[in-house]
Amino acid sequence: MCDDPSHSHVHAHGPFRNLGHEHGPLQVQVERRVLESNDVEAQHLREDFAEDGTLVVNLISSPGSGKTTLLEATVAELKGTLSVGVIEGDVATERDADRIRALGVPAFQVVTGGACHLDARQVNKALRKGKFPDLDVLFIENVGNLVCPTSYDLGEDFKAALLSVTEGDDKPFKYPGIFSAAQVTLITKTDLMPHVSFDLEAVKGQIKTLRPGGEVLMASAQTGTGVDAWCGLLAARLASKRARRT
Ligand SMILES: Nc1nc2c(ncn2[C@@H]2O[C@H](COP(=O)(O)OP(=O)(O)OP(=O)(O)O)[C@@H](O)[C@H]2O)c(=O)[nH]1
Ligand SMILES: [Mg+2]
Description:
This protein is an alpha/beta fold. The protein contains 9 helices and 7 strands. It has a 7-stranded parallel beta sheet, with helices on both faces.
């Protein structure tokens, strides 16, 4: 699992992939250092976000679960009342950032060129290069992957995991790391429920086991159902962050 540094993705994508002794002590040490230095950078970001009173949400899911579509629906709903910005992470293309910018919302695309997650240093750079205005809410759409992004703190207030009904009800059992790290899980594409076999109770039960007290929301960005509850959660979390600041 990726949230154990000794099983980090680094062996697959980092400069150490050819060391030839997977999970050997040297590799474990290197990976631990990578995660430790990411944690330091993330802590700086978290302090800056706290000072600015910006709520930061790290969206994580498999490719195609509906992160950008949910963001489109979310920013359309929030944009009149809150200042919203988006950092997009993808292996290639500016497509997702273009989709957000088309709605008149500032977005900066990080192209990882192969890496399967964003790290705190990339977020810091994106904030500087993106020239965002003062933000109430910053969304970070991570690279589509249920494993790698789990270990990387981006200074966010919370991770939100998305699970679409089309990708199977076994995912919280097979990829427990992200569903235990995420304070909020959004079950997406609920408009497709009548057409797929998806054991909602089993999914909810497993998420509650992995993350007692975590929130599970249902949403269809297509029909708009559940988007208001999601936006309500964001507004409440923003208000409580601001209240803590004062
Ligand atoms: N029926 C239905 N389709 C949806 C919904 N949300 C997203 N989709 C479709 O699912 C596909 C993928 O959606 P995206 O929002 O691009 O998914 P993503 O998670 O951002 O994908 P990556 O950025 O590649 O990881 C698109 O064809 C969307 O139109 C939904 O609520 N209902
Ligand atoms: Mg996307």
